[in-house]
Amino acid sequence: MKKIVYMVVLNNVIYDARVLREAKALSRKYEVQILGIKQSETDLTNHKVSGINIHLFHLLTKNILPKNNLGWSIKYLEFIIKANLYLVFKKLDFLHAHNLNALLPIYFLGRIKKAKIIYDSHELFTEMSGKKNTLINRLWFRIEKFLLNRVNIVIAANKSRADIMYKEYGAKKIPEVILNIPRKQQKIVQYNKLFKYLEENNISTDNKIVIYQGGISKARNIDVLIKSVKFWQPGSLLFLIGPILSSEKNELEQLINQEARVIYHSPVNSEVLPQYTKFADVGIVIYANDCRNNYYCAPNKLYEYIFSSIPVCGSNLPEIKKVISKYKVGEIFEDSNPKSIARAINKILSNYENYNKKEIYTKIIEEVNWEKQAEKLLNIYKRITG
Question: Which of 76, 178, 241, 276 has the CB geometry, 3.0–4.6 Å to 194, for a possible disulfide?
Fold first, then answer.
Protein backbone atom coordinates (compact mmCIF):
# COMPACT_ATOMS: atom_id res chain seq x y z
CA MET A 1 0.00 0.00 0.00
CA LYS A 2 1.27 3.46 -0.90
CA LYS A 3 2.22 5.82 1.90
CA ILE A 4 0.07 8.93 2.18
CA VAL A 5 1.18 12.55 1.76
CA TYR A 6 -1.09 15.31 3.01
CA MET A 7 -0.11 18.68 1.57
CA VAL A 8 -1.43 21.81 3.29
CA VAL A 9 -1.67 25.28 1.71
CA LEU A 10 -3.68 28.38 2.56
CA ASN A 11 -5.25 28.96 -0.87
CA ASN A 12 -7.61 27.10 -3.18
CA VAL A 13 -4.73 25.39 -5.06
CA ILE A 14 -6.13 26.08 -8.55
CA TYR A 15 -3.57 28.75 -9.49
CA ASP A 16 -0.70 27.37 -7.41
CA ALA A 17 1.46 25.73 -10.08
CA ARG A 18 4.29 24.82 -7.68
CA VAL A 19 1.99 22.96 -5.28
CA LEU A 20 0.32 21.05 -8.11
CA ARG A 21 3.63 20.12 -9.75
CA GLU A 22 5.06 18.81 -6.50
CA ALA A 23 1.87 16.86 -5.75
CA LYS A 24 1.87 15.30 -9.20
CA ALA A 25 5.56 14.34 -8.91
CA LEU A 26 5.00 12.69 -5.53
CA SER A 27 1.90 10.85 -6.78
CA ARG A 28 4.21 8.57 -8.79
CA LYS A 29 5.27 6.93 -5.51
CA TYR A 30 2.73 8.07 -2.92
CA GLU A 31 -0.96 8.73 -2.44
CA VAL A 32 -1.31 12.53 -2.32
CA GLN A 33 -4.10 14.78 -1.08
CA ILE A 34 -3.99 18.58 -0.87
CA LEU A 35 -5.84 20.49 1.84
CA GLY A 36 -6.63 24.13 1.16
CA ILE A 37 -9.20 26.89 1.68
CA LYS A 38 -12.21 27.89 -0.40
CA GLN A 39 -11.67 31.33 -1.91
CA SER A 40 -15.13 31.72 -3.46
CA GLU A 41 -18.57 30.15 -3.42
CA THR A 42 -17.83 28.38 -6.70
CA ASP A 43 -14.90 26.40 -5.24
CA LEU A 44 -15.80 22.75 -4.71
CA THR A 45 -15.14 21.11 -1.34
CA ASN A 46 -13.83 17.90 -2.90
CA HIS A 47 -12.49 17.69 -6.43
CA LYS A 48 -9.47 16.74 -8.51
CA VAL A 49 -6.94 18.92 -10.31
CA SER A 50 -4.41 17.19 -12.58
CA GLY A 51 -5.49 13.89 -11.02
CA ILE A 52 -4.73 15.02 -7.44
CA ASN A 53 -7.44 14.84 -4.74
CA ILE A 54 -8.15 18.25 -3.21
CA HIS A 55 -10.20 19.05 -0.11
CA LEU A 56 -11.02 22.71 0.56
CA PHE A 57 -12.21 23.95 3.93
CA HIS A 58 -15.06 26.45 4.02
CA LEU A 59 -14.23 29.06 6.66
CA LEU A 60 -17.45 30.42 8.13
CA THR A 61 -15.57 33.48 9.43
CA LYS A 62 -13.92 34.33 6.08
CA ASN A 63 -16.43 36.86 4.78
CA ILE A 64 -18.02 38.12 7.98
CA LEU A 65 -14.98 39.35 9.91
CA PRO A 66 -13.01 42.56 9.22
CA LYS A 67 -9.67 42.36 7.40
CA ASN A 68 -7.56 43.31 10.38
CA ASN A 69 -5.28 41.41 12.75
CA LEU A 70 -8.12 40.27 15.00
CA GLY A 71 -10.28 39.14 12.09
CA TRP A 72 -7.37 37.33 10.46
CA SER A 73 -6.47 35.59 13.75
CA ILE A 74 -9.99 34.24 14.21
CA LYS A 75 -10.12 32.98 10.60
CA TYR A 76 -6.72 31.36 11.07
CA LEU A 77 -7.87 29.69 14.28
CA GLU A 78 -10.90 28.28 12.44
CA PHE A 79 -8.58 26.84 9.78
CA ILE A 80 -6.32 25.28 12.45
CA ILE A 81 -9.29 23.61 14.15
CA LYS A 82 -10.81 22.31 10.90
CA ALA A 83 -7.48 21.05 9.52
CA ASN A 84 -6.68 19.17 12.74
CA LEU A 85 -10.18 17.69 13.04
CA TYR A 86 -9.90 16.49 9.45
CA LEU A 87 -6.45 14.93 9.96
CA VAL A 88 -6.66 13.59 13.51
CA PHE A 89 -8.14 10.22 12.55
CA LYS A 90 -6.21 9.89 9.30
CA LYS A 91 -3.13 7.79 8.72
CA LEU A 92 -0.38 10.42 8.52
CA ASP A 93 2.82 9.25 6.85
CA PHE A 94 3.90 12.67 5.56
CA LEU A 95 2.68 16.20 6.24
CA HIS A 96 3.94 18.66 3.63
CA ALA A 97 3.33 22.30 4.59
CA HIS A 98 3.56 24.95 1.88
CA ASN A 99 4.80 28.05 3.70
CA LEU A 100 5.06 28.88 7.38
CA ASN A 101 1.39 29.68 7.86
CA ALA A 102 0.55 26.13 6.74
CA LEU A 103 3.24 24.53 8.91
CA LEU A 104 2.13 25.87 12.29
CA PRO A 105 -1.43 24.43 12.14
CA ILE A 106 -0.29 20.84 11.51
CA TYR A 107 3.11 20.63 13.22
CA PHE A 108 2.02 19.45 16.68
CA LEU A 109 -0.49 16.89 15.36
CA GLY A 110 2.21 15.62 13.01
CA ARG A 111 4.61 15.14 15.90
CA ILE A 112 1.97 13.35 18.02
CA LYS A 113 1.18 10.99 15.14
CA LYS A 114 4.87 10.51 14.26
CA ALA A 115 4.47 11.79 10.68
CA LYS A 116 7.43 12.98 8.63
CA ILE A 117 7.04 16.76 8.37
CA ILE A 118 8.23 18.77 5.36
CA TYR A 119 8.42 22.56 5.52
CA ASP A 120 8.30 23.88 1.95
CA SER A 121 9.14 27.59 2.20
CA HIS A 122 8.03 29.28 -1.03
CA GLU A 123 8.86 32.70 0.45
CA LEU A 124 10.90 34.42 3.12
CA PHE A 125 7.63 34.55 5.02
CA THR A 126 8.41 37.31 7.53
CA GLU A 127 10.20 39.42 4.90
CA MET A 128 7.47 39.64 2.30
CA SER A 129 6.30 42.95 0.85
CA GLY A 130 4.05 44.81 3.28
CA LYS A 131 5.25 42.91 6.35
CA LYS A 132 6.38 45.38 8.99
CA ASN A 133 8.45 45.08 12.13
CA THR A 134 5.35 44.54 14.26
CA LEU A 135 4.88 42.33 17.30
CA ILE A 136 2.96 39.82 15.18
CA ASN A 137 5.68 39.60 12.53
CA ARG A 138 8.38 39.20 15.19
CA LEU A 139 6.30 36.41 16.69
CA TRP A 140 6.11 34.67 13.31
CA PHE A 141 9.90 34.94 13.01
CA ARG A 142 10.33 33.26 16.41
CA ILE A 143 7.87 30.54 15.36
CA GLU A 144 9.88 29.91 12.20
CA LYS A 145 13.18 29.71 14.11
CA PHE A 146 11.56 27.29 16.57
CA LEU A 147 10.15 24.99 13.88
CA LEU A 148 13.05 25.08 11.39
CA ASN A 149 15.09 22.45 13.22
CA ARG A 150 12.14 20.40 14.42
CA VAL A 151 10.83 19.29 11.05
CA ASN A 152 12.31 16.44 9.01
CA ILE A 153 13.28 18.55 6.02
CA VAL A 154 13.21 22.19 4.92
CA ILE A 155 12.82 23.14 1.26
CA ALA A 156 13.55 26.59 -0.20
CA ALA A 157 12.66 27.98 -3.64
CA ASN A 158 16.21 29.05 -4.55
CA LYS A 159 19.79 29.05 -3.26
CA SER A 160 19.77 32.68 -2.07
CA ARG A 161 16.79 32.10 0.20
CA ALA A 162 18.22 28.78 1.42
CA ASP A 163 21.43 30.58 2.44
CA ILE A 164 19.48 33.21 4.40
CA MET A 165 17.53 30.53 6.26
CA TYR A 166 20.79 28.78 7.14
CA LYS A 167 22.95 31.78 8.02
CA GLU A 168 20.36 34.06 9.61
CA TYR A 169 17.28 32.05 10.59
CA GLY A 170 19.20 29.38 12.48
CA ALA A 171 18.64 26.30 10.30
CA LYS A 172 21.22 23.68 11.31
CA LYS A 173 21.46 22.46 7.72
CA ILE A 174 21.20 24.36 4.44
CA PRO A 175 17.65 23.77 3.18
CA GLU A 176 17.13 21.67 0.09
CA VAL A 177 16.44 23.73 -3.04
CA ILE A 178 13.55 22.86 -5.33
CA LEU A 179 13.31 25.41 -8.12
CA ASN A 180 9.94 26.72 -9.22
CA ILE A 181 10.11 25.88 -12.93
CA PRO A 182 7.92 24.28 -15.64
CA ARG A 183 8.06 20.78 -17.03
CA LYS A 184 10.40 19.99 -19.91
CA GLN A 185 7.82 17.80 -21.58
CA GLN A 186 4.90 20.15 -21.97
CA LYS A 187 1.70 19.57 -23.90
CA ILE A 188 1.89 20.91 -27.44
CA VAL A 189 0.02 24.22 -27.44
CA GLN A 190 -2.15 24.52 -30.53
CA TYR A 191 -5.13 26.60 -29.41
CA ASN A 192 -4.36 30.32 -29.38
CA LYS A 193 -6.61 31.75 -26.67
CA LEU A 194 -4.67 35.01 -26.61
CA PHE A 195 -5.54 36.01 -30.17
CA LYS A 196 -9.10 34.76 -29.72
CA TYR A 197 -9.54 37.04 -26.69
CA LEU A 198 -8.11 40.03 -28.58
CA GLU A 199 -10.35 39.40 -31.58
CA GLU A 200 -13.43 39.11 -29.32
CA ASN A 201 -12.57 42.55 -27.95
CA ASN A 202 -11.91 44.06 -31.41
CA ILE A 203 -8.17 44.46 -30.81
CA SER A 204 -5.77 43.88 -33.70
CA THR A 205 -3.58 40.77 -33.41
CA ASP A 206 -0.95 42.61 -35.46
CA ASN A 207 0.13 44.35 -32.25
CA LYS A 208 3.29 43.22 -30.47
CA ILE A 209 2.00 41.70 -27.23
CA VAL A 210 3.89 42.10 -23.97
CA ILE A 211 2.40 39.72 -21.40
CA TYR A 212 2.45 39.87 -17.63
CA GLN A 213 0.98 36.85 -15.83
CA GLY A 214 0.55 36.48 -12.10
CA GLY A 215 -0.71 38.45 -9.13
CA ILE A 216 -1.56 42.06 -9.97
CA SER A 217 -0.71 44.48 -7.16
CA LYS A 218 1.32 47.57 -6.35
CA ALA A 219 3.73 45.38 -4.38
CA ARG A 220 4.75 44.02 -7.77
CA ASN A 221 4.93 47.53 -9.26
CA ILE A 222 2.13 46.80 -11.72
CA ASP A 223 1.06 50.43 -11.42
CA VAL A 224 4.53 51.50 -12.61
CA LEU A 225 4.40 48.95 -15.44
CA ILE A 226 1.05 50.34 -16.63
CA LYS A 227 2.43 53.91 -16.52
CA SER A 228 5.37 52.83 -18.70
CA VAL A 229 3.11 51.83 -21.62
CA LYS A 230 2.80 55.40 -22.92
CA PHE A 231 6.55 55.31 -23.65
CA TRP A 232 6.37 52.03 -25.60
CA GLN A 233 6.83 52.03 -29.36
CA PRO A 234 3.63 52.21 -31.46
CA GLY A 235 1.92 48.93 -32.26
CA SER A 236 2.63 47.31 -28.88
CA LEU A 237 0.28 46.56 -25.99
CA LEU A 238 0.38 45.18 -22.46
CA PHE A 239 -1.68 42.07 -21.70
CA LEU A 240 -2.25 41.46 -17.96
CA ILE A 241 -3.60 38.08 -16.86
CA GLY A 242 -4.06 37.18 -13.21
CA PRO A 243 -5.92 38.05 -10.01
CA ILE A 244 -6.04 41.70 -8.89
CA LEU A 245 -5.39 42.25 -5.18
CA SER A 246 -8.84 42.96 -3.74
CA SER A 247 -7.74 45.90 -1.57
CA GLU A 248 -6.28 47.66 -4.65
CA LYS A 249 -8.86 46.52 -7.18
CA ASN A 250 -10.59 49.89 -7.75
CA GLU A 251 -7.32 51.82 -8.07
CA LEU A 252 -5.67 49.35 -10.44
CA GLU A 253 -8.77 48.89 -12.59
CA GLN A 254 -8.95 52.68 -12.97
CA LEU A 255 -5.30 52.75 -14.10
CA ILE A 256 -5.92 49.92 -16.56
CA ASN A 257 -8.96 51.66 -18.05
CA GLN A 258 -7.05 54.93 -18.49
CA GLU A 259 -4.51 53.36 -20.86
CA ALA A 260 -5.97 52.11 -24.15
CA ARG A 261 -3.01 49.81 -24.77
CA VAL A 262 -3.48 47.83 -21.55
CA ILE A 263 -5.70 44.74 -21.75
CA TYR A 264 -6.82 42.81 -18.68
CA HIS A 265 -7.87 39.14 -18.50
CA SER A 266 -9.10 37.38 -15.37
CA PRO A 267 -6.92 34.53 -14.00
CA VAL A 268 -6.89 31.09 -15.62
CA ASN A 269 -5.52 27.83 -14.23
CA SER A 270 -1.96 26.72 -14.92
CA GLU A 271 -3.05 24.12 -17.50
CA VAL A 272 -4.71 26.78 -19.68
CA LEU A 273 -2.15 29.59 -19.20
CA PRO A 274 0.30 28.38 -21.92
CA GLN A 275 -2.45 28.97 -24.49
CA TYR A 276 -1.90 32.67 -23.80
CA THR A 277 1.83 32.81 -22.97
CA LYS A 278 3.00 30.92 -26.04
CA PHE A 279 1.56 33.49 -28.44
CA ALA A 280 2.90 36.66 -26.79
CA ASP A 281 6.05 38.42 -28.00
CA VAL A 282 7.67 39.42 -24.68
CA GLY A 283 7.15 38.35 -21.06
CA ILE A 284 7.39 40.70 -18.06
CA VAL A 285 8.80 39.80 -14.63
CA ILE A 286 8.45 42.75 -12.28
CA TYR A 287 8.75 43.03 -8.51
CA ALA A 288 9.13 46.06 -6.28
CA ASN A 289 12.54 46.02 -4.60
CA ASP A 290 11.00 46.77 -1.20
CA CYS A 291 11.86 43.63 0.77
CA ARG A 292 14.35 40.77 0.75
CA ASN A 293 11.69 38.28 -0.28
CA ASN A 294 11.22 40.19 -3.54
CA TYR A 295 14.92 40.97 -3.87
CA TYR A 296 15.79 37.26 -3.99
CA CYS A 297 12.76 36.04 -5.94
CA ALA A 298 13.06 33.74 -8.94
CA PRO A 299 9.39 33.38 -9.90
CA ASN A 300 7.85 30.61 -11.94
CA LYS A 301 6.74 33.10 -14.60
CA LEU A 302 10.39 33.81 -15.50
CA TYR A 303 10.80 30.23 -16.64
CA GLU A 304 7.27 29.98 -18.07
CA TYR A 305 8.19 32.69 -20.56
CA ILE A 306 11.50 31.02 -21.41
CA PHE A 307 9.84 27.62 -21.83
CA SER A 308 7.36 29.32 -24.18
CA SER A 309 10.37 30.61 -26.19
CA ILE A 310 9.64 34.30 -25.72
CA PRO A 311 12.17 36.97 -24.57
CA VAL A 312 11.95 38.31 -21.03
CA CYS A 313 12.05 41.83 -19.58
CA GLY A 314 12.79 41.65 -15.87
CA SER A 315 13.47 43.67 -12.73
CA ASN A 316 17.11 44.30 -11.84
CA LEU A 317 17.09 41.76 -8.99
CA PRO A 318 19.83 39.13 -8.46
CA GLU A 319 18.03 35.86 -9.29
CA ILE A 320 16.11 37.35 -12.24
CA LYS A 321 19.17 39.14 -13.62
CA LYS A 322 21.29 35.99 -13.27
CA VAL A 323 19.02 33.98 -15.57
CA ILE A 324 18.40 36.72 -18.16
CA SER A 325 22.09 37.70 -18.35
CA LYS A 326 23.47 34.17 -18.35
CA TYR A 327 21.34 33.01 -21.27
CA LYS A 328 20.93 36.40 -23.01
CA VAL A 329 17.18 35.99 -23.36
CA GLY A 330 16.09 39.54 -22.62
CA GLU A 331 16.72 42.84 -20.89
CA ILE A 332 16.81 44.20 -17.33
CA PHE A 333 15.07 47.35 -16.08
CA GLU A 334 14.74 49.41 -12.90
CA ASP A 335 11.31 48.42 -11.65
CA SER A 336 10.40 51.80 -10.14
CA ASN A 337 11.16 53.75 -13.34
CA PRO A 338 8.54 53.71 -16.14
CA LYS A 339 11.03 54.99 -18.74
CA SER A 340 13.56 52.28 -17.81
CA ILE A 341 10.88 49.62 -18.30
CA ALA A 342 9.93 51.15 -21.65
CA ARG A 343 13.56 51.30 -22.85
CA ALA A 344 14.05 47.60 -22.13
CA ILE A 345 10.83 46.59 -23.90
CA ASN A 346 11.49 48.83 -26.90
CA LYS A 347 15.02 47.46 -27.22
CA ILE A 348 13.72 43.91 -27.47
CA LEU A 349 10.91 44.78 -29.87
CA SER A 350 13.31 46.76 -32.11
CA ASN A 351 15.93 43.98 -32.21
CA TYR A 352 13.69 40.95 -31.85
CA GLU A 353 15.83 38.58 -33.89
CA ASN A 354 18.65 38.93 -31.33
CA TYR A 355 16.48 37.45 -28.60
CA ASN A 356 14.32 35.02 -30.53
CA LYS A 357 16.85 32.21 -31.04
CA LYS A 358 15.29 28.79 -30.73
CA GLU A 359 18.56 27.04 -29.84
CA ILE A 360 19.01 29.20 -26.72
CA TYR A 361 15.60 28.29 -25.32
CA THR A 362 16.15 24.61 -26.14
CA LYS A 363 19.46 24.69 -24.24
CA ILE A 364 17.85 26.23 -21.15
CA ILE A 365 15.01 23.71 -21.15
CA GLU A 366 17.51 20.85 -21.31
CA GLU A 367 19.60 22.30 -18.47
CA VAL A 368 16.85 23.41 -16.09
CA ASN A 369 13.46 21.69 -15.98
CA TRP A 370 10.86 20.37 -13.56
CA GLU A 371 11.63 16.73 -14.35
CA LYS A 372 15.04 17.17 -12.67
CA GLN A 373 13.45 18.96 -9.70
CA ALA A 374 10.81 16.21 -9.39
CA GLU A 375 13.50 13.53 -9.12
CA LYS A 376 15.22 15.60 -6.45
CA LEU A 377 11.95 15.90 -4.51
CA LEU A 378 11.33 12.16 -4.71
CA ASN A 379 14.88 11.49 -3.48
CA ILE A 380 14.29 13.81 -0.50
CA TYR A 381 11.21 11.80 0.46
CA LYS A 382 13.07 8.53 -0.01
CA ARG A 383 15.89 9.77 2.20
CA ILE A 384 13.70 10.85 5.12
CA THR A 385 11.66 7.64 4.89
CA GLY A 386 14.82 5.69 5.76
Answer: 276
* CA terminus-to-terminus distance, the chain: 17
Q: Could you report the per-residue pLDDT of 257-285, keeping only the tens digit for each?
A: 999 999 999 999 888 899 999 999 999 99
Domain CATH number, residue 139: 3.40.50.2000
| Domain-embedded: residue 209 | yes
Per-residue pLDDT tens for 301-330? 999 999 999 999 999 999 999 999 999 999
What is the spatial distance between Cα 98 and Cα 21, in angstroms, rounded to a whole number?
13
Counting the structural domains of the chain, the total is: 2
Burial 313-349 (b: 16+ CB within 10 A, else e): bbbebebbeebbeebebbbbbebeebebbbbbbbbbb
3-state secondary structure at position 175: coil
Alpha helices (H) along 113-203: 135-148, 159-167, 193-200
| Residues whose CB is less than 8 angstroms from the CB of residue 38 and which lie 6 or more positions away in sequence, other chains included | 12, 45, 56, 57, 58, 59, 62
Residue 267 lies in a domain: yes
Show the domain range for 55.
4-180+369-385
CB atoms near residue 155 (< 10 Å): 21
- Residue 156 near residue 137 (C-beta atoms within 8 A): no
